[in-house]
Amino acid sequence: MELEICRAMTSDETYCNSQHFALLCDVTTTEGYLMVITHHGINRQDVGLIMRSSFEETVDTLMEATAQSDFKPLKNVSERILLGRLPELGTSYFDLLLDTKKCAKVLELPTNTMVGHDMMPNDPVKAFNQETTTPQIESMITKSNDESVWLQIYRQMTLMEPVNFS
Asked: Which residues contact 72 (CB under 8 A, 6 or more apart)?
């Protein structure tokens, strides 16, 4: 079928990509039978209003939808792009919600004041508030005499095991 469409469309020596013909074959046979590529076939599919109006009979399709108070949310990528909305894919696919109750309990780490070449203050024990420390960090603070607490935390955070992906 694709070969026949290709021969008919390129009979006047014009070039058209073969993937366009493959897409045309997919659309015409998607329902399990041959569907005509006119408004009698394509516009009778169960697709959104904008998709139906973008093919043929734009005014008639929109007038009919208005008369019937047809409401369809824009979920299709093509519909959203056609109306200037961001499609719901990639980073636009989800919303980020901020939990303000958890933000109120966040421990603020001191920023670098660049005293010498150290990244953290001289006394890390004073930098922690006892109400916000975890038992692990508290035990590290009390046990560390010779090595910086920040260095111990950093080493624990960066220990990564190799992961095999299938």
From this structure: 48, 49, 50
